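Hi everyone, sorry if this is the wrong subforum. Our group has a chain we'd like a structural model of before ordering constructs, and none of us has done structure prediction before. Sequence below.
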Amino acid sequence: MKELVEVIAKALVDSPDEVVVTEKDNEKAIVVELKVAPQDMGKVIGKQGRIAKSIRSVVKAAASKEDKKVIVDIVQ
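Answer:
Right subforum, don't worry. Here is the predicted structure as tokens:
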């Protein structure tokens, strides 16, 4: 899941070298944290959170094959 989020985020932002994705494994779910440059936050979140929601939907669909719950957090 980490690689998927990283590829999507790098395609959206102006500074792909500043994209950092970390993955934490909990008992209930996998938490994927996405950090981007401050000027790129709007591009990753989108108007009314549409881009962020789309990223979460794609990751959720990919995770359903593995029967895992994945949470995507966009952090500053």
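For your construct planning: Strands lie at 20-25, 30-35, 70-75. The CA atoms of residues 3 and 56 lie 14 Å apart.
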